[in-house]
Amino acid sequence: MSLDWIYYAISWILLRWHSLWDFIGVPEGRFLGSNWSWVLAIVFLVVTVRVILFPVFVKQIKSQRAMQALQPKVKELQEKHKGDRETLQKEMMELYKTEKANPLMGCLPMFLQIPVFLGLFHVLRRLNPDNQGKTLYGWTVEQFESATHASLFTAPLAGKFGSTAEELTALQANGTTVKIIAGILVLIMMSTTYLTSRQMILKTGWAEDPQQKMIQRLMLYGIPLSLLVSGALFPIGVIIYWVTNNLFTLGQQQWVLRKFPPPPMAKKPGSAPARPSGPPVKKPAGGAAPKSPVQPGRSGGLFGKKPQPEPQTPVVDTKALAPKPGAKPVNPKKGARPASKPKG
User: Residue 73 is inside which H or E element, if any?
Assistant: First the structure.
């Protein structure tokens, strides 16, 4: 009874969206084996919830950025208190408190969506023609009957992969069709759940804190695998909600991660190798140096023969002038004689 307020809230949002699509002109009957007014009502229930939780999602991103910025300090504490878990935990709690970082904030949006998920699960599970409480949670008999027969590609929204023969008979559904549609949706649900976690981890990086890393691994692998079993118990309408929520999350995360990119601390490992080569300005000078050896090689070949005045400029004449006091000055003249020989 304590969760009745959630059931009323979910029902109210769901019925308002259904009424809106009906007012706009989305046909109440089936098109391609689907009652799109009810399918779209579930899809836009997700949109409503995500818009409400958007500020919390932004806080989640900021908290994760703060946790990343603290990783160097966390590493120092781990090295300092290696082997002393109790002291390490106390020091880390003090660090988080001082820096106003909350490790649990990363999971808050998911925790806040759990009541919504449970509420929708309960409401859709009640969609059975034999149910006597048709007007519960603000529904009218007409709305209840319409939702009970709503389907996606001929598979009832209230049906599930593990529906019994009695349940399928009450819903007037084909068991094979329900299993195929539900099975495909469960696989899509698992894949999109994995992709949402992977997208966040790739953008923010793996946490250094063992507890945070364990949570990341749980979200990346544990939750998608658990859906392989639990997905068989979810009504098709609930799986539509989950898949839509994951797709919305992928787009929202992409936007938020661009708006609030990871701090430079997280980029250092990638940029550090580029910086050591950059800061030494001598290396860019060296980069110019390799150009100069190529140029001098080319210029030496081109200009080395022409600038013969340089071998003449070496103080060869002065060296020849130095031996002039002796009879040896004739030797430099011999160097000049080859020039005089053609004259003779």
Answer: helix 71-80
Average pLDDT of the segment spanning 43-67? 84
Contact 166/220 with Cβ under 8 angstroms? no
**Residue 155 forms beta bridges with which residues?**
152
Mean pLDDT across 328-343 = 49
Q: Which two tokens stand for residue 83?
A: 């082997």
| Number of neighbouring beta carbons within 10 Å of residue 38 | 27
- Residue 14 to residue 20: CA distance in whole angstroms: 10
User: Which helix (DSSP H) or strand (DSSP E) does residue 47 occupy?
Assistant: helix 36-69
Q: In angstroms, rounded to a whole number, what is the distance separating the alpha carbons of residues 71 and 135?
A: 54
Q: Which residue has the tokens 């009970």?
A: 148
The pLDDT value given to residue 82:
81
pLDDT band of residue 45 (cuts 50, 70, 90) is: very high
Cα separation, 192 vs 252, in Å, equals: 14
Neighbours of 28 (CB within 10 A): 13
Give the C-alpha distances (Å, rounded to integers) separating 256 from 6, 54, 63, 97, 138. 28, 10, 13, 25, 36
CA separation for the pair 100, 121 (Å, rounded): 36
